[in-house]
Amino acid sequence: MISVVLAGILNEAWPAALLALGLALVFALILLIASIKLKVDVDPKVEEVHKALPNIDCGACGFAGCSSYAKAVVADPNLLGKCAPGGSDASSAIAKILNLQMSGSGAPMRPVIHCRACERDKTYFAEYDGIIGCTSANAQPNVQACAFGCLGYGGCVRRCKFDAIHIIDGLAVIDYEKCTGCGACVAGCPRFLIEMVPFTQDIVMTVACSSKENGKNTRTFCKVGCIGCGICAKQSDLFGVTDNVARIDFAKYELSEAAQTAMDKCPTGSIVFRGKDAPADRPAGQKPKTKKKSMEV
Predict the structure, then answer these.
(1) What integer is the mean pLDDT of 210-219?
(2) Does residue 11 fall inside a structural domain?
(3) Residue in 239, 257, 263 with CA at minimum distance from that of residue 249
(4) Do 125 and 208 belong together in one domain?
(5) Which of 123, 177, 245, 285 shows the greatest Cβ crowding within 10 Å of its Cβ?
(6) Does 169 reside within a domain?
(7) Element (H, E) at 2
(8) How confident is the model at residue 78 (pLDDT cuts 50, 70, 90)?
(9) CATH number of the domain where residue 206 is located
(10) Count of CB atoms within 10 A of residue 117's CB?
(11) What pLDDT, on the 0 to 100 scale, is given for residue 61?
(12) Which range of residues forms the domain containing residue 201?
């Protein structure tokens, strides 16, 4: 009895199975034909350029990812040099693939933070107790005495895909071992403290302050802020003072004895080194270095 029932089921099922198999073969054939007809030939140069890129899809170049940038730079060689993480090595490799001549050094761009004030260096007007975020805190008056310093709530940290920024003692600090130079952190700071600068060397000098207050107020608000005294500018033409704050002209950056003297004589220690293995900042309150005068006999 059971065998008869099974035989009946099989007799009724095999036409449906055969039909399903036939349809599967037809659809497979259609897909095969479509893949051949719609196949897009990839330019071999695009593939080579893509291999020369770091392939981290950070978006620093302004495109969605390395693949998009590879196609764009092959189509328009003027886009060469847009890959900050790849730096000069990637640019040189791409130039070779495209038979182009590189002009300039193509120094990698890396961020510097124009503030070095930790919690212990700051004067606070009030304790912020709102939404944890730099943009929200910045919208509140008197969240801290200095209206130009790092808020320390991690807006830049959340922007970074590479765990290259951390808040340490109330201050954003860049880990240059991990930093790719993508520039995403710049948009995360509502006080515009982060600047992308050319790192012609492993470490560069910068002014870690953005206060536009007069010198007296800056000293009141912060122990390590730039007071706009202009001593650095008198020592080296690398420096200039605008709106009570010193800045370095990175277009002509070159570490020299004059620049080092300017750093040593800075009364508040706001001129610092940044980059891989950069020396520690001068402790707050430590007097600037002065050259000892030789005694005349």
Answers:
(1) 96
(2) no
(3) 239
(4) yes
(5) 245
(6) yes
(7) helix 2-37
(8) confident
(9) 3.30.70.20
(10) 27
(11) 84
(12) 109-275
